[in-house]
Specification:
8 helices; 204 residues
Length: 204
């Protein structure tokens, strides 16, 4: 075995130990911002974040919808219409300009991870984990990945514009319309999608 080969082997071993033995493949952290000890770990190679649950570690999905927002034509000096407690349905949406719609949807999707956490914080405790918290965590992670991960935010905005162009859909709340649109983007058959819309039109 030549000297060069030995050096290469030594470097490989050192690199392997550095990544997988010390300081280990994952970086472990505790988040106390909610008042509860939420344990996370981050893969040092992929930056994937996993959440500690009673059934083990699961991937914590955060929808990636904002990859084109930096290219949007946002006028930061433009005064947005103030929100005065209007019902957030298609009638409100149709009355907003393009920038207001974009800013609204940014806030909408940026708030989704917090909504996901609110669904399990009450029952989540690393010392005494509850099955209800586990189900909420898995539900959010599964649906966020299935319906929103990798979908561009402008696709949702354009979808809402098209959806509310039909006056029969104007009374449907925006959050419900986003859910309907997510199903369509995910490939729901048109006949099933039409039936779902009819159900939401009947919802008071």
């Amino acid at each position: 075995m030549t000297k060069e080969v030995k050096i290469i082997l030594i470097l490989v071993v050192v690199a392997f130990i550095g990544w997988f033995v010390w300081p280990t493949l994952y970086r472990y952290e505790n988040d106390y911002s909610s008042g509860l000890p939420i344990k996370y770990r981050t893969n040092r190679l992929t930056n994937e974040v996993q959440l500690s649950t009673p059934r083990g570690w699961i991937k914590w999905e955060i929808p990636q919808l904002f990859n084109k927002v930096e290219n949007a034509n946002i006028n930061s000096t433009k005064e947005l219409k103030p929100y005065r407690g209007e019902t957030l349905n298609g009638n409100w949406w149709k009355d907003q300009d393009e920038q207001t719609r974009l800013m609204f949807m940014l806030g909408f999707f940026k708030g989704m991870p917090l909504g996901g956490k609110l669904s399990f914080w009450k029952d989540y405790n690393m010392d005494k984990p509850q099955a209800s918290a586990q189900k909420a965590i898995e539900s959010y992670s599964e649906y966020a990945n299935k319906y929103f991960n990798g979908v561009d935010i402008f696709k949702h905005i354009n979808g809402l514009n098209e959806f509310y162009s039909d006056h029969r859909n104007r009374t449907i709340m925006i959050d419900d319309a986003v859910w309907l649109g997510a199903n369509k983007i995910a490939g729901m058959p048109q006949n099933e999608f039409d039936k779902l819309i009819i159900q939401y039109r009947k919802t008071p």
